[in-house]
Amino acid sequence: xxxxxxxxxxxxxxxxxxxxxxxxxxxxxxxxxxxxxxxxxxxxxxxxxxxxxxxxxxxxxxxxxxxxxxxxxxxxxxxxxxxxxxxxxxxxxxxxxxxxxxxxxxxxxxxxxxxxxxxxxxxxxxxxxxxxxxxxxxxxxxxxxxxxxxxxxxxxxxxxxxxxxxxxxxxxxxxxxxxxxxxxxxxxxxxxxxxxxxxxxxxxxxxxxxxxxxxxxxxxxxxxxxxxxxxxxxxxxxxxxxxxxxxxxxxxxxxxxxxxxxxxxxxxxxxxxxxxxxxxxxxxxxxxxxxxxxxxxxxxxxxxxxxxxxxxxxxxxxxxxxxxxxxxxxxxxxxxxxxxxxxxxxx
Length: 347
Fold this sequence. Notes:
The chain is of the alpha+beta class and about 350 residues long. It is about 20% helix and about 25% strand. The chain is built from 7 helices and 22 strands. It has helices at about 55-60, 60-75, 110-120, 175-180, 200-205, 260-270, 300-315; strands at about 1-5, 30-35, 40, 85, 100-105, 135, 155-160, 160-165, 185-190, 195, 215, 220, 230, 235, 240-245, 245-255, 280, 290-295, 295, 325-335, 335, 340-345. The strands form 6 sheets. It has a 6-stranded mixed beta sheet. Strands 4-3-2-1-12 form a 5-stranded antiparallel beta sheet. Strands 15, 16, 20, 21 and 22 form a 5-stranded antiparallel beta sheet that branches. Helix 3 packs across helix 7 (about 300-315). It starts with a strand and ends with a strand.
């Protein structure tokens, strides 16, 4: 099952569908997606209905999931005709435009090792045993084709392609089984980073703040069963394709996570519970032996390419993103785009 969140007003859906209050759309409107057929179905045409948004459905998943699966089955069969629209005409927001929490990890150890080596720093002493986590910005999450606002190019704008999971309720001290079964949906995330602000943030002793603006997301979030064998061991076993200005910069295997998502969740719930609608990111997808692109070793963020250049040549040669640059991130399973594409331009 694939789900998304659309803006009714920006999709041009007027008349009886845009009822009182629905033009203010902080959570978007939930749709079931059949991207093979190129269509989606609005789950509710009223903001007062039971599950008008993904956020509402996640909070009531035990009741919402069977209804959504039946709607999905009807849509894919071609029998559903009410409130069905072409995907190409819909304005997709982030699947969860505002979440109850966004936790980001660094589960790909090759990324940690490489970027620290480039600046002459040692990796964390227990990085193979203890996952790195931090709390990130959880509101104002950016849709797949919304522009990236960059006020100052000297801040060093970078992208970071990540896999993310969207959770149900998970208790404090969760077991591995509880952690695994709390994963409701899987998504594709671009964790935007202002690299040149990181040293200032870290020097404060409180961690990331100004260096981490709102992340952006691909349009579709999918249930684990939708991925079949590509979802196993709490990891996504597919490559993430990244392009800058139309040029391939990486096609990186997302399965090379040292810590699985259940591993990350059991660590995250050591001192707290997590509520339905929380997002957990994997950290930058990275491979110990990345495949080669025409520009060099494949990367899912520019910082890794710059780190390799620093190690090999004594200086970073790749620049960070600037105004008018374009970015594309996508995951393919054969000929099918799993999450849809993140396609953004820097402005």
